Amino acid sequence: MIYLIPVVVRDAHIIAKLIEKRIRDERIEGVYSIYLDPKIRGYLVIEAKNDDVIKKAIAGVKGVKPRSELLTISEQELDKILNKLLNEEKEVINVGDIVEIIRGPFAGEKAKVTAISSDKNLYTVIPIDLPTIVPIDIPAKNIKLLKSSKE
Question: Which domain covers residue 71, as residue numbers?
Fold first, then answer.
């Protein structure tokens, strides 16, 4: 069976390592794989023999959100979710495009892209509505395209 274990998002990597360590140290049999995908935020995917094995593996691990019932998912459903996440078309943002800052201290501000650093996945933008012109470097995940300069 494949189980979805709800975890604290910011500590997901640490929680996965703690569970792995517990499985190795206590020699818990029946856990086949642990999978953590940053696109499936808040969940750790664990493949195991049955509920008892999972409960033993996650018992007492801080950061695992307690639930009365374990969430299960079929292999076909997991394949659908992963294929959908992998095949999402990414927005192509170019110099001159108008974007909205969606995270950080300037969240909600509209800005114009002035430079792109593809090796670091950063965009340099200038907020449109601020009284001063201040270039800001922002990660790609913190902006969304509003208007393309090609339109």
Answer: 2-86
